[in-house]
Every structure is written in structure tokens, then in C-alpha cells.
Amino acid sequence: MTTQLVAALEALGSPISEQLATLRYSFVLFFELIAESFRQLLRPSRAPEVIQQIVSIGIGSLPIITVSTAFAGFVVTNEIAWHMDRALHSVTMIPGLTGQFVLRELGIAVPALLLVAKVGASITAEVGSMKVTEQIDALKLLGIEPVGYLVYPRFVATVVASACLTLIASAMTLAAAISVACTRFGFSLLEYLNALRHFVTYRDLVCALTKGIVFGAVIPIISCAYGFRCKGGAEGVGTATTNSVVTSTVAIILLDFILTFLFTRVL
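The structure assignment produced for this chain is given below.
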């Protein structure tokens, strides 16, 4: 009985210790990226790879993000209007509430989580496959630094793409909210926009961009960390990809809470 209990505890502790080790490595990778960024500022050499990754990540993620956020805007606007009508017997506050919610939360969190599922999983699978097939070791033998060659272009591209996609997603969500407000609740376009400008300011755009940049930085760091620590062949790549998506999702939700708390105190 004791032996079985010890074996069960060891089986439980091993994945946890591996997760913690990977998270520690994520911080190491972050500081290595900072050093690589300074090197690239002095002697740029990865511009073609960065541009290629921006096109791949940004343009490749645009359709799913625009469609998803547009329908999220439809749903949220209907829900806000329904609850407002039930509680206040009025829907005059729809522009303000939808504008604040989109630019502070919905238009930022949804694209970030979609990028985790699409881009983060792809990065982990790609880097993990290179790790288990010893291609990363081959790069080191050739004198090529893996962080500069693999991580830096994806890091910069994801940050830039995330910031741009956050703005596009917020605009799409607001457009969906406006269409619902105008077609279902009797608002005119000018009336909606006039009411919106009393609630939405540059501070909301600052909040949206800051969150988009932070989320865009977290995704490739965690994804590459799991890829670099991948082992065990094809099964290991699958496990690393799953753990990467789960960890990135939790990290984004946690950072979203922290940044929201800070912005409500500062902005």
C-alpha cells in the first residue's frame, strides 16, 4: 500500500516539477530575448525572417479573429441590451457599455486566446519537432544561435501582429455592436457614435494596445520554452503542445486580471 502511494505521488509530482522547470526556463528565455533584441538593434540580421513571420501570423490569423470577434460583438450587444432592458427598462446606455467592454476586454482577450490556439500551438509543435529530431543541436554545431534564429523572429512578429489584430478585432466587434444597436434597438449611426465618444477615450485605446502587446509577448515565449524542452518523439511533441496551450491560456487570463486591476487604478 505504501509503495503504491509513493508511486502515485511520484507520478503526480513529476509532471508538476516539469511544468515548473519549463516556466523557469520561460523567464530565462525572456532575458535571452532582451539581449538578442539589443544585438539586433545594433546589427539587424533577422529582418526577412521577422517580416515572413508577421505575414504568416498576422495575415494567417486575420480571418478567424475577425469572424469570431464579430459574432462575439453580436452576442454581447444582445445580452447587454436584454439585461439593461430587464433591469432599467431602457437601452440608452448600450453604446457606452459595449464600447467600454469591447476596448477594455472583449476585443483584446478573444484575439489573444485565438492566437494561443492557432499560433502558440504551431510554434510549440514546430520548435518541438526540431528539438526531438536534433535539428536544434545541428544549428548549434553550425554556430547558429537558436534563440536568435527561431525565437526572436517569432517573438517580434507575434508582438506586432497581436497589437494590430487587437485594434482590428476591437473595430470589428464595435462594428458588430453598432449594427445590432441600429437594426434592433433603433439607434442611428450618428446617435450611437455621439453616445460612444462620451464613454470611450484614448485611455481605452492605450489599455487595448498595452494588453495586446503583453499578450503577444507571452505567447511565443511560453510556446518556444515548451518546444525547447520537448522530448520523447512524436508523443512528446503532442504533450508539449497541449501543455503550452494550457499554460499560455492561464497566463493570459492571469495577466488580463493584473493589467485590468492596474488600469482601473491608473487610467
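Interim note for the steering committee: The CA atoms of residues 113 and 220 lie 13 Å apart. Residues 5-12 have pLDDT under 50 and may be disordered.
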